[in-house]
Amino acid sequence: MKIALYPGSFDPITLGHLDVIAASAKIFDKIIVAILRNPNKDPLFSIRERLIMIAEALAEKNISNAEVKVFEGLTVDMAKKCGAKVIIRGLRSPADYETELDMCFNNYQLAPEIRTVFIPPIQNHTHIRSSTVRELINFGKTDLGLYVPETVLKKIKSKMKK
Ligand code: PNS
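# 4'-phosphopantetheine complex -> structure
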């Protein structure tokens, strides 16, 4: 079985992430969407909220061969734990390529048996970043249907009411 790990912060999951997962799910037998629990970051959405939003977004899109998990520490260690020989990373732009290539080489040094595969989102979604979504939320925007899946929209709206 070809298992691929898709690691990230997913704060929150975007339509771009979802494109990457949908494309990967057609190439690999199983995708593990792995949320990094990062003690150095102050996230907008809790780990639990992100976990639920991703699981719901996968269900909304009928992606049945992907599951969501949380991890701490190195991505390659999580990949080994899950039996994944592939790490997936989305690639939106040449700027992404520079940082992603460094990460890819670092992961290769750490675990050469695990290779990184880059997958671009569809063209309409190449400008979408979780950081932009967070910024727009902080400015009070809730009509973010062109940025995030329905489940995230609902969460944003309920968060704003509180
Ligand atoms: O969604 P993000 O924030 O771009 O994801 C970055 C992530 C989580 C993939 C990256 O920070 C990561 O792999 N962190 C775990 C620590 C690690 O493995 N570092 C070595 C690779 S440079």
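# post-check
The first strand starts at residue 3 and ends at 8.
The pocket of 4'-phosphopantetheine is lined by residues 7-9, 36, 74-75, 103, 106-107 (CB under 6 Å).
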